[in-house]
Design brief:
Blueprint lengths: L12 E6 L4 E13 L2 E10 L12 E3 L7
Antiparallel strand pairs: 1-2, 2-3, 3-4
Length: 69
């Protein structure tokens, strides 16, 4: 029998991104992709609206920095 886990809805945080002299507030979304209970990939994106928009200055995928335990 497989077990399925679902996360409750969590509102995205916001980050200020400055591409020139003005700062733009973009939503931030961090995701952990797992398989067999082990995190395989961590990804982040910065966006406006409902979906990732690669045309928004400063938007798109973002680096995720981790720290060893």
């Amino acid at each position: 029998m497989n077990t399925y886990y679902a996360q409750a809805l969590v509102a995205p945080s916001e980050r200020n991104v400055a591409d020139t002299l003005t700062a733009t507030a973009l939503k931030a979304d961090v995701r952990n992709y797992t398989y067999a209970g082990v995190v395989k990939l961590i990804a982040a994106r910065l966006y406006q609206g409902q979906t990732t928009n690669f045309r928004t200055p400063g938007g798109g995928f973002a680096p995720v920095f981790t720290q060893a335990p």
